[in-house]
Amino acid sequence: MKDLFGTALLDYFNGNFTEDIVTSTNISDEDELPLSYLFRDYKDMSKLEQKALDLSKGSVLDVGCGAGSHSLYLQEKGLHVKAIDVSKGAIEVAQKRGVKNAELISILDETEKFDTILLMMNGTGIFQELAKTPMYLKHLKSLLNPGGQILIDSTDIKYMYEDEDGGYWQDLHSNYYGELDYLLSYKGESEPMITWLYLDFETLATSCESVGLQCDLVMEGDHYDYLARIH
User: Fold this and answer.
1) Nearest to 61 by CA among 127, 3, 105
2) Distance separating alpha carbons of residues 88 and 4, to the nearest angstrom
3) For every one of its 231 residues, what pLDDT tens digit does the chain have, with 9 covering 90 and above?
4) Which of 2, 27, 33, 91 could be disulfide-bonded to 21 (CB atoms 3.0-4.6 Å)?
5) How far apart are the C-alpha atoms of 23 and 34, rounded to whole Å?
6) Residue 28: helix, strand or coil by DSSP?
7) How far is residue 195 from each of residues 26, 165, 180, 211, 218, measured CA to CA in Å?
């Protein structure tokens, strides 16, 4: 992997900012992801993120920590936090910003146990495909202490398939509509395309049930997004 995401975070952190990350999917045009957004404080976070941070307790695993904004806030609250990411640059930035325990590791290679597992900024994305979701959930379940919780957010992107008449144009022979081909570009270079999963709440709850977990809807956001608590 080129780690363009990590390169972009390092550029921004080191004062070399010249342009933002560009993302696109197989059902949407190019969109800019402002690098400043990845360094935001609690007051600038969405209500869903703030709620998830408020609900976090005990020892916390911040999955896909990025620049470490969530971890830093929880650390300041006095919680014991481990931040993980598969981006080397992201981990370097998180450490330089003051995250005490940040590790370059995939969630599937994590073995420690936690009271709260945090998966934010479309946390279901790391599951990649609907078919892989139970496997990921089973692994997350194995990392929970008794009474532990998983706080995860996502968006029901069904609205993106709506036509002008209010109907939907989904291909019934294709995969689940939330499985998207996702492309990230930075300064004219592109990462290899990945699959990124957006899960509607009912489908997430059903997947949780299949591996012996309960999924509760905590709150809904302003644009088809939601925060769920899994335990």
Assistant:
1) 105
2) 10
3) 689 999 999 999 999 999 999 999 998 999 999 999 999 999 999 999 999 999 999 999 999 999 999 999 999 999 999 999 999 999 999 999 999 999 999 999 999 999 999 999 999 999 999 999 999 999 999 999 999 999 999 999 988 877 766 665 666 556 899 999 999 999 999 999 999 999 999 999 999 999 999 999 999 999 999 999 999
4) 33
5) 11
6) strand
7) 10, 29, 6, 23, 26
Q: How far apart are CA 200 and CA 177, in angstroms?
A: 10
Q: Residue 34: what residue type? A: P
Per-residue buried b or exposed e for 154-189, using 16+ beta carbons within 10 Å of the residue's own CB:
bbbbeebeeeeeeeeeeeeeeeebbbbebbbebeee
How many angstroms separate the CA atoms of 162 and 151, rounded?
A: 29
CA distance 84 to 139: 15
Separation between Cα atoms, residue 31 and residue 184, nearest integer Å = 10
Residue partners of 108: CB distance under 8 A and separation at least 6: 136, 139
207, containing H or E segment: helix 201-210
- Sign of the Cα torsion 99, 102, 106, 112 reads negative
